[in-house]
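Sanity check. The docking grid for N-oxalylglycine depends on where the pocket ends up, so I'm generating a full predicted complex first rather than guessing from homology. Inputs follow.
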Amino acid sequence: MTTSSVTPAFSFEAHNALIDALVEKGWYVGTDIIDPALCEALAQELSRLKAAQALEEAGIGRGQQHHLRKDIRGDAIHWLNRESEAQRTYLEAMQHLQTALNQTLFLGLFEFEAHFAHYPAGAFYKRHLDSFRGRANRVVSTVSYLTANWPTDGGGEMVIFDPQDPEREVARVIPEAGTFACFLSETVPHEVLPTRHPRASIAGWFRRNASQNGVLDPAR
Ligand code: OGA
Ligand code: MN
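Predicted complex below; grid placement will be based on this.
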């Protein structure tokens, strides 16, 4: 791969480290990965969406199974839809990552879906997997953190657990702007600890085409 195939939105060296980490342990975390100007633009867009009451309370489950569970997750979200330059730049960087993952790991990733997430103070997301075995639609999960100058006592870390030993914590990710995390959706349990500071991120998923027996998988 040549550097010319990569947008400046996303640190190039990260691709190789990320792919190695996904293969070796199923997860990757890197700091200072996303361009600071892009992070700032995305954070401002999320603030505007919140002010315009354009965020929806997040739920769990897809399609008709979708329902609110404040005891499980307390974030408010807005799906990316290419409506701004910042979103388009971000999605293009993810497109590059998708191509790199497909070329090196033959994952057959087919599309990327992502939402902004705002966690107000007090919010959390209990330990979960992003995809269930059997109906493998979400293959690789991504999280980009957007809040600059995260306070040391801010809480809100994402805890990653060992896929082989789900009680064992293997990483604690501080949600500081520029940090990018990525992991296998079907096998890596993770959780967002209660935050004490408003927390901005973009969660996204590379998906396989999961249509089965002519039934189209729910879009989300
Ligand atoms: C999710 C999720 C982690 C984070 O949205 O599914 O696990 O750190 N997010 O925001
Ligand atoms: Mn998750």
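Relevant for the grid: The mean pLDDT is 90.
Also worth noting: The pocket of N-oxalylglycine (ligand 1) is lined by residues 117, 125, 130, 143, 158, 190, 192, 201, 203 (CB under 6 Å).
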